[in-house]
Amino acid sequence: MARITRIEPITDSRPSGEDQRAHDDADTTVFAGDRAVQQDDTARMRVVARRRTVVGVGVGEAWGIFGAVIICFAITLLLNTKSFVRIANEQPDGWTRPVLLASAHGLDAVASTLRLDRMNAWIDGALNRQDDAPTFTAIAVNAPPVTATPAVTATVAAPAGDAGTVVPQLAGAPAATPGPPAPSAPALRTVTTANPLRVYVAGDSFATWMGYDFADYAKRDGLIASLLDFKISSGLARPDYFDWPARLTQAMAGNPPPEAVVWFSGANDYVDMRTASGSLTRDTPDWLTEYRKRAGEIMDIVGRSGGQMYWVGQPIMRDSGRAKAAADINTVVQAEAESRPWVHYLDIWSMFTDANGGYATFLPDASGELVRVRQDEGIHLTRTATTSVSDRVYAAIRHDFHFPQ
Q: I want to staple 313 with a disulfide (CB 3.0 to 4.6 A). Which of 2, 330, 359, 405 is the partner?
């Protein structure tokens, strides 16, 4: 069995749905006096606008300006045709996508023939902007050998004091993906400041602040060396936009490779998926079967290279459709993690629910004071909330690798 951890809230003093709405309303209150001032300012602006003199532009001048803008746009497009191809790839399925792709590839071919794309490549090289996975610079002195991680079902005890996770089974959930047989799980090494643990934080925009937190832990404790690798709007549903299996394969092939991989992604996977056999509609059993397969592939890439994986589950979302999608993803990912002893799945769902189990924008901290934990769009965590999750992930890593106290 994999290590499953449900992360509980800091305090049981949670606002109800009514308390939450009252707190949200308080943040957006506008007093009558303020409205009067705004109306008065608007009236003055109208008077000033009526007094302004309109300066006309000749037809010839206008066409000259328009022509210059078009030329600048064309040059910029030809210098960045790779970006145009990427943007076309990101478009949803439909009649516009093949048209945009054909146009983008045509322009890219022209730019390549004229060698206009060399300028952009030279700039990227000068600024060290190649899109490669970050790597650790050197092997620690006297580092113990890394034993290959198995891919076999094994029982791994949860950290002391951690509550076991109970996730309701999804109706019609797909069967587990069988993995290849392998020997038992290896013992993890002891970490010291002379030989810090190599931690690779990866994922979508959710991983950004978590990566910053792990950089802070590295400076504070000296027990880890951390790397952050994130791609906004990425996930497992659109490898044509960003291929995470290829990226993690590259990262795990580094010399030295990461020893612990923290994965925080999934919020962008609320979309249909394209496969070799066709398109899969989200929120269907076939979609979940494919997503589970892709999650298992990510886990196996880490495991084959001897890494331990810390998969952070999705938090509850404000939109009911997104909340259901996040819950479904959590269910199939956890089920896939259970057969891989090197994967530690961390369930953070209840961390961000109110007293009624619903979505919460504000939650009490350890002192009981309400703090904002979600951003305005109802999807992302705030920096404070992310740090709360990061602390728990780091605690799990410290426990598994026997960090000195």
A: 330
